[in-house]
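thread: overnight batch results

M.L. [08:02]
morning all. the overnight job finished for the chain we discussed friday. pasting input first so we're all looking at the same thing
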Amino acid sequence: MILSSCAWWPSWLGINVAAALISVPAIAFAAEMQPGNCARAANYSEKNRGFSVLVMQNGKTVFEHYANGGGVDMRCKIFSGTKSFWGIAALCAVRDGLFKLDDRVADTITEWKNDARKSQITIRQLLNQTDGIEPAPHLHSDSIRDRDAVAIQLPLVAAPGSAFEYGPSHLQIFNELLRRKLNGRSTISYMDANVLSPLGLTNLEFKKDGRGNPLPASGFELSAREWAAFGELVLGRGNYHGKQIVPANLLAQAFSGSNANPSYGLTFWLNRQAPNAREIDIEKELDLKWQLAHWFGICLCRAAPPDTIVALGSNYQRLFVIPSINALIVRQGMSAKFSDAYFLRLVLGRQLDWLP
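M.L. [08:03]
and the structure it wrote out:
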């Protein structure tokens, strides 16, 4: 099924992204999104087990397509796309004065105070996954009674700030920190009140453990339109349909990479090293041991604007947000041979420069 109806420069994203754009031909990004290009991208997605493609620009739906059993109201697992919601919840907590991003985690998780290295870890490092804590993929298991307790006892495997180690441990520790800052009140309730409810999202799966702790690393199931609402929040500089959920200057910090990984901000992936970087399949890179992954001089797509922001989940669940053309793109599907770089070239009408 196809539903079709047929720019602004975001200075709040920072001067580095702006400088990157200067070297890119303006024609690549200035045109309006075209339904024909979107249809070609949707056809590619469908042939690779895609369920949905939704494209919005300037607050309007440009294109919407469902296939392989997908539909307008069908919710799909977004896997690690869930992380970005918790990133926004973290910024809400900063907004509310619960903590600052560069506060030491040990100020709240006092079990770390006497550990010379753990005591140096900041909340920002938890959110950009450079804290040095073991990634601990086993935390996804439903058999763990108290994920928070397990996570805060995990060992360091790298010096804080020195390496990017993708995994569930970092946000699980953040969940415990937020729980303590809320004086034991539910972090799920905080997420509901500050992020989900303002976006009109209800009845989401938090994958609770035996103590009721959520799994912030994964779990949400959303329709394409529901996920697009989250993208509208980003495009709105923290404002969604007239309500300022996160201050714009605070949200902008989520889109700044770390020294260990310039392509990952606070729970969001970034295309900021484009257009001269090496294109990679992020999911394949994440399959490597963290010591072998390379995050310098890489990007998702050289032909996409450097300010492209991505909420990314396994099996090629994607929410692409492109502030410089005021557009967002949702793609959902099952694991298959799929290329973000090729898909983005198609949807942006840039496929002619494709070199695999």
